[in-house]
Structures are given as structure tokens and as C-alpha cells.
Design a protein that fits this description.
heterotrimer, A mainly alpha, B mainly alpha, C mainly alpha, B: mainly alpha, two-stranded antiparallel sheet, 25 helices, 73% helix, C: mainly alpha, Four Helix Bundle (Hemerythrin (Met), subunit A), 2 domains, 0% strand
Amino acid sequence: MATLHQYLLVSGLLFAIGLAGVVLRRNIIIVFMCLELMLSAANLTLIAFSRFNLTSYGLPDPNSQMLVFFVITVAAAEVAVGLAIIVALYRARQTIHTDDLTSMRG
Amino acid sequence: MNQLPWILLFLPLVVAAANQLFLKRSPLAVITSVASAAITFGIAVSLLGKTGTSSFEWASVIGFSIDLGITLDPLSTGMMIVVTGIGLLVHIFSVAYMKDDEAKARFFTGLSLFMFSMTGIVLASNFIMTFIFWELVGVSSYLLIGHWYQKDSAADAAKKAFLCNRVGDFGFLIGILLLWRITDSLAFDGMAAGVKAFQLAHPAIFAATLSTALLCVFCGAVGKSAQLPLHVWLPDAMEGPTPVSALIHAATMVAAGVYMLFRVQFSLHLEPEFLRGLFSSEVIAWIGGITALAAALMATQQDDIKRVLAYSTLSQLGYMVMAVGLVAGEAGMFHLFTHAWFKALLFLGSGAVIHACHHEQDIWKMGGLLKKMPITGITFLIGFLALIAIPGTSGFFSKELILDAAHEHNPALFWIAAVVAVLTPFYMTRLFVVAFLGKPRDHGSEHAHEVGPLMFVPLALLAVMALISGYAGVNKLSPALPEHAGEFHFHGIVPWVSLAAVAIGVAAGYLLYKGKDKDPVSIPLFKNRFYVDGFYDNVVVRYFQDAFAGIVNFFDKFLIDGVGVGGLSRGAESFGNLFRRVQSGNLQGYAFTFGLGVVLVIYFTVFR
Amino acid sequence: MPSLLFWFFSLLMLIGGIAVVAFKNPVSCALSMVASFVGLAGLFIGLNAYFTGIIQILVYAGAIMVLFLFIIMLLDLKVETGRKPKLGAVAAGFVLVIAFAIQLIGVLSSSPDKELPKLDLAAGAAHYQDLSPKIANTLSVDQKLPDVHIIGQTLFTGYNLPLQILGVLLLVATVGVVVLSKRQTN
């Protein structure tokens, strides 16, 4: 049987992989996907804690599952808006390569 | 002492402010200025003979305070009569003279400002106040010389006057501070006690220190009274309107130097013999004498009617300074008093002539004006006679006293003064013969006609004063009066020398210039004013000023601008640029920084 | 959950994640993400979070992935070519990730581990006896965890207001997306 640490470890590794993707990849859509990976890694942590810290009546804590539920819903909305922004950006700049998007240079 | 002196002081300022703020385009400015001059003259007359002081604290630092104060004594009240009396006549004359000027209001504002400043110098009870008003007359003189600032020559002349005065004032300020250390008092009436105490405390260095201080103070007078070597501004100042020349550059402001010197001498209460022995008195007397001689020589070759008069003013100021240097300041002040009237008369007369000849100033283009403008001509003649010291006129009495003093104390200076006494009638005769006698030589003088009453009434009044101001009785108005003033006393060599000098000068001038249409003698050295101006322009300005400007520029650009101001700003800028690089605009860079922050936060919260 | 399955799903998830980062073709990346999420869903189900696992599949693999693919196709993104990644940036990214992983291991090794506790269905049944007889019944009679029912019960009793707000959020997102993707007509 897997222990809490093993769940937390894989969750952390997934988060690290997502972070690596955000920092390393230059394609903004893939950066976006990696953000989703990171969110999901957080979800896994929540679910693991829910299962490993049972409620006083011996069932998994439903409150953390609520949190995951909300995270997933917000993530869906965020993906929709984010992709729409990317489309608008592409129309304006003809690129989704982050190296070309430097108008915030000080 | 009541409020009157303060009204006397501040009324012109109020008028000047009102003119500048509210009446800039209004003909009312003329009326207010003339009215203020008339009122101040009335007050000055009513204050005659009064004495007293009144002051209030103006600024104070622990243990030291600066007062604004007024001193009334015969010296200041007498001087006020000169200032306000001539001031009033010049105001009236200006109403006609400046009738067609577009910036009349500005002109009268300047006149009122000048009246305020000059009153301040005369009434000042301490050196700080003197210095403030000393600078203020400089400013108003600057404004009035540059009245026609559209002309380059006028603007340059104004600048030159201001700069020359600044050079002198630098020394003046040092002198004030030195005198302050010596006497421990800035107020004139506290000086006598202070100087006595210093003499007792440091007998060994007393004479040298006092001499240095007086010489520094004299620097101020050199600038303001246009003595050698700072005389160059006064002839150029003739670019200003002629009434200004009469009031400021002949009668009052330029005499302020003499007045101030006399005021200091008088306040120190030292033995005349001791003062005369001081090195500074020697220098002052010699500078006065040399100025008188040099200016008279230059005057003999000038063609501009106002410049002749300007050099004549220089020469007469030299006389006065010489008298102060010989510690015969009363004689100097008496000459200042008489000279003020007749020189103002000559200047206003020349103003009337210039006005009548359509702003022609070259005497060789005038001629025959005595017939065309009899009143102006006769009053001018009276001024001329007073200036050359014909017995019976005011100039005779005062000049005799100076020559007496010179003869008594310094024979070399006496003979220099005697030569000046020959030259003065010579160049004045030249001026009068060429401009007023003979035939008109030019269109302007041919069509000249007598000026209106607003102009000739002041001339007539001044002519009266030029004749009678020397006599006992009238000369009570003089700021200071030596013994035997206003008496004919033909004993000794002096009167005979001066009479002979006048006779020689007039005869030479008349014979040489009668009926001539152009100058029969030409002495380039005199015409070019001993090349002093050229020397200043080509050597002092070019080399010294430019070199100095280079040094100042270095200080300003590299040290102050580069290291101080610029260094600070560059420091801030590069510091900012350092942080600007963080804002790379690179998305991943931000993400990386963010991740780094997360790692650091974890490190600090968990592992420490 | 048998360890074998845990490791299988874990590896699927991690390898899928690595593939997302590593693949050059965006379509491959998207498909790798689906694989990763399938692994994640397996882990969820192994943790008795059946509903969340299914939702994960439905929302991510079903909806979000399609959206990603759709945008990739719409923008006609090709394999990135000719762009050399900057060595310094790559190194910095790796250093950051490795530092994070090391910290993770450090944290985990310094905190107590925990075995998977057994569910106590009887106590759960007693708890839900008053709240929802149906859940209590499933727990006590069928000896199963009615995950969906419990979540529904919690959602509609404890999280009513957030649920409403979430609905508004989705509406706002929908409107926002429409506004953003509408072509600007002058």
C-alpha cells in the first residue's frame, strides 16, 4: 500500500515538471498546459490529504474534495478565457512565442 | 521724530509698485510719479534742520541684529533737498521730454524706484541699509539706462554700468565687513566709539587696518562715482534718456559715492590730521585728482554733447573725491551740492537741445542754437558759467574751497587741479561755441525752436539755483558747509590761479573753435579715451574674463554639475537602470523569478 | 490500492508530464497531457475520490484538451523550428526545478509518514443517519462509499453560496471569451 509520502512525492514531482515547463518552454500554449499540470498536482495533494486524514466519522474529508471541485471548475473557466486571450494575442502579433512578446520591457 | 521720514522713504516705492502693478499702460503713472516727487520734495523741505534717528529691527540672529533705520542730520537732510529738488524738476522735465515715448509708464516707474533707492542711501543709519539701497540704485540705474533696450548700445551700456558697479561693490562689501570688525558696529553713530576702542586695543595695527578698510569702502565709491579705473560705464550710460542722465548720472547717484565716503569719515570722528596721514586718504585724493585730469582731457575731444558733459561730470566727481581724500570733505560736499544744480541744468539743457534737434547729439551738426532757443541757450550759458567757476556763480565758491584745500595739503594735486581748471573752461567753451554760436550746420538745428514751458521752467529754476546756491544763506541747504563758504576772499595765490585758468581756458576755446565747421585739433589719444575702453574690451574681457569664465565653467560643469548634481542624478539613474534590467519583458524571466521566490520562501520558512 | 497500480498510474502521470514539457509538436504535447491526466485520475480513484477522478477525465481530457487542440489547430501551430533555446535559461530552469525537488524531499523526509488508514463505514453511517438516510443506507447495507452522494450533500448544504458564485463566474467567463474572440470591427 502506498503511503502519504509517496503521494506527496509524485504530486510534488508533477508540480516540478509543470514548473520546468513554464520556465523552459517558449510556446505560450504549452506554458499554459504546464500551468494546468501544476494545478492538477495541487489537486492530487488535496485529495491525498483528504484520504489520509479521515474525518471523525471515518470517511474521507469531503471539504477538500469541494476545494478540488472548485479548482477544476475555475481552471476550466481560466482555460477558456486564457485561450481566448491567446487567440486575440495571435491576431494582434502573429506570434505566440514568448520571446517575441517583450512589450513589458522596462 | 515722527512718521514723515518714513513716508519720504517709502512713498516713491509705493508709487513705483502701483505703477508697475496697476498703471502699466495708463497715463496716470506719469501723474502719480510726479506727484510723489513733489510730495517728497515738500517733506524734505519740512525736515530741513531736524535731527534724530528712528529704526526698527529688521532681522536678528542670536546676539546680532540688523536694523532698518533713518538718520536725520544736516548731512542727510541737505542731501535730501538736492535729491528731491532735482528729482522733482527732472520729473517735470521728463513729462515733456518723454511725451511721445511708448513706455512712459515704465520710465516713470523706474524714476520712482530710483527716488526710493536714493532716499534710502541718504537716510540710511547703518551700513547694511546703505549697501542694500546702494545695490537698489544700481538696479534702477540699470533699468533706466536700458530704457530703450531695443537699441543694442543701450542694453550694452546698461550691462556695462551694472557690471562695473558690481566690481566696485565687491570691494565695498569687504570694506563694510572690515569696518564692522574694527568698530563692532554697523550703525554710523556707533562707529566713533568702536574705532576709539580698537585704537586703544591694537595701536600697532590700527592705522594699517583702518586704511585697508577705508580703501575697500572706497572701491564702492570708485564704482558708483565712476572714478578711475571703473569710470568707463558713465559715458556709456548716456545711452539712457537725458533726464535720467541729469538726475542719476550727474546730480545724485554718482555723488552717492562721495556722500558715503564723507559719511564714513564724518562718523569715525577722527582727528583730521590723523586721517590725512592715512595711506588710504592719500590714495583717494590721488585717484580723485587723476580722474579729474584724465576725464577733462578726454572731454576736450568728444563730439557728442552728452558725452562731453559726462566726462565733465567725471572730472568734477574727481574734484569731490579728491577733496574727501584731502580730508576737506565739507568742501567736497559743498561742491557736490552746487555741482548737482548746474550739472543737472546742463544735462536738461542738452536734453532740450537734443529734443529740439530731433535727437541729434553731435555738436558739429548743431550751431546757432542760442538764437533759435534763447531761453534754453541762456540757461545753458548760466550752467556753463557755473561749471567753469566764473566768480559770482555757485561753482566758483565751491571749487575755490577745494583748490584751497589742495593748496594747503598737497601742492602736487593743487597743480593738477589747476590744469583741470584750465581744461574745464576750454572744453565747455568749445561745446558752447560750436553748438550755440555760429550758423546751423544741419537740418535738425536749422529747424530747432524753443521748447515748451514744461521744459524751460525747470531749466530756469535750475539756472537760478546754479547762480545763487553758493551764496551765504542759500548755501545753508548744502549737506555740509566748510568755513568761509560763500565769501569772496582774494588772498593768497589760489584765486588768481583759478581766475587765470578760466581766462586761459575760455580764450583758447573761443579762439580755436569760433566759426569752425569741424574740429581743428585731433588728438586720437583723448578722443579714444586713453584707450581704456579698448583695453578693457580687448584684454580684460578677452583674456581675464574668458580665462576666469573657463575656470568658473570648469567648476560649474565638472564639479558642481558633473560630480555634484549630475553625479547624484547619474547614480540614481544607473541604480534605476540596474532594476530596469529586471523588467526584461521576458515572460519566462518573470516565471523564473517567481519560482525562485517560491523556493526561497520555502527555504526560509522550512529550513531555517 | 495495490502498490503496483499506484506506481503504474504515478509513472503514467509523470511520464505524461515530462512528455508535455519535452515534445516539440504542440499536438503531441496535448495528447501527452491527456495521458498524464488519465494517470492522475487513476490516482484519484485509488484514493477513493471516485467523483473527482471521473470529473478529472471529463473536464480535462474531454473538454479542456479539446479546447487546446482546437486552438492549436485554429492557429495552425507547427513544430517549433529554428529557435535555439537559450542555454543559460534552460540551465536556470533546471536548477530551479532541481532545487524545488530537493526541498520537497527534504520536507518529506523530515515529516512523519502515514499509512493509508482504513475507512470506518459504520461510523460514517451513524454520522449520516440523520442527514441523509440514503447515504447511511449505502454505507451500512451495501458496505460501499457513496462518494457522489456525499459530495452532492456537502455541496448543496455547506457550499451553496460558493456554488452560485461559481455559476456566475462561468457565465462571466463565457461572455468574456465571446468578447475577446470577436473580431474587432473598427
